[in-house]
C-alpha cells in the first residue's frame, strides 16, 4: 500500500475491524486516521490501535490519500456534503462501505472523485469477511489495488464489472450470515426440544456449523458432493433432508435471496 495515508469517516465496528486488519498485515498505525463524533469511541480506538483520531471529519479528509466512508447510509449525505470542497480539491480515493448508497449518490454529494463501492459482511469483524467491490469510472489500477488490499485485510474480496451486481452480493453474502444464524438458532431449539441442555445444544450446533464450513472450504469437491457423502441411503441424514426437500427448502432459499436483492435495489433507488 506504498506509504499512503488512509482515513476513516466513522469509527464504528467495521472501521475498527478494517483498521485492525490492516495493522495486523503490517500497516503502521501512524498511517491511519479516524474521525467520529463520539469522543469516548475515539479514545477507545486510539488505545486499541494507536491510530490518529479526531472529531473533525475535515481534518481527516485534508490529510489522507484514501478516505473510507464508514457511516450509516441515512447520514451519508450530510457527512459527504461537509467534505465536498476538500474532496473536489484533493481527489482522494473514496471507498464507501455503506449499503444502498450508489456511486451516483456519492457523486451528487461529493462531486467528481475516484470512487470504489464495497459490500462487506459482518464476519469481516473477525477477519473472515466476504466483500464485493465495484470501481467506478476514473479509478486507476493502483487505486483499485489499494481498495482491494484494504478490504482484503478482513477477508476475501470479489470485484464486479457492474454496480448492479452488488445487489446480488448484498442478498447472498451481505445478508447471508443471518441466514446461517437462523439455521443455527433453529437447530439449537430443535436440539433442546429433543432433550439436550441449552448450553450443550449451542456448543454442538456452533461446532458443527464451524466444522462443516471448514470442510467445505478445504475440500476439493463442492457442497453437493459433501452432502451426498454424509447421506447414507435410508439413514438418519436422509430422513432429515427428506423433510427439508418436502418442505421446499431450496425454493424457499431462492425466494429469500430474490426478496433480499429486490429490497437492495429498492434501497439503492
UniProtKB/TrEMBL annotation:
GO CC annotations, alphabetized: cytoplasm
Positions bound to NADP(+): 9-14, 70-73
Pyrroline-5-carboxylate reductase catalytic N-terminal domain sequence ranges: 6-100
UniProt keyword annotation of NADP present: yes
Top-level enzyme category: oxidoreductase
Residues binding NADPH, per UniProt: 57
One GO term of the biological process aspect: L-proline biosynthetic process
UniProt keyword Cytoplasm, yes or no: yes
Principal cellular location given in the protein's record: cytoplasm
Domain of life: Bacteria
Alphabetic keyword roster: Amino-acid biosynthesis, Cytoplasm, NADP, Oxidoreductase, Proline biosynthesis
Location in the cell: Cytoplasm
Catalytic activity: L-proline + NAD(+) = (S)-1-pyrroline-5-carboxylate + NADH + 2 H(+); L-proline + NADP(+) = (S)-1-pyrroline-5-carboxylate + NADPH + 2 H(+)
InterPro entries the record matches: 6-PGluconate_DH-like_C_sf, NAD(P)-bd_dom_sf, P5C_Rdtase_cat_N, P5CR-like_CS, P5CR_dimer, Pyrroline-COOH_reductase
A molecular function (GO) term: pyrroline-5-carboxylate reductase activity
Protein family according to the UniProt entry: Belongs to the pyrroline-5-carboxylate reductase family.
Role description: Catalyzes the reduction of 1-pyrroline-5-carboxylate (PCA) to L-proline.
Protein name: Pyrroline-5-carboxylate reductase
Organism: Alloalcanivorax marinus
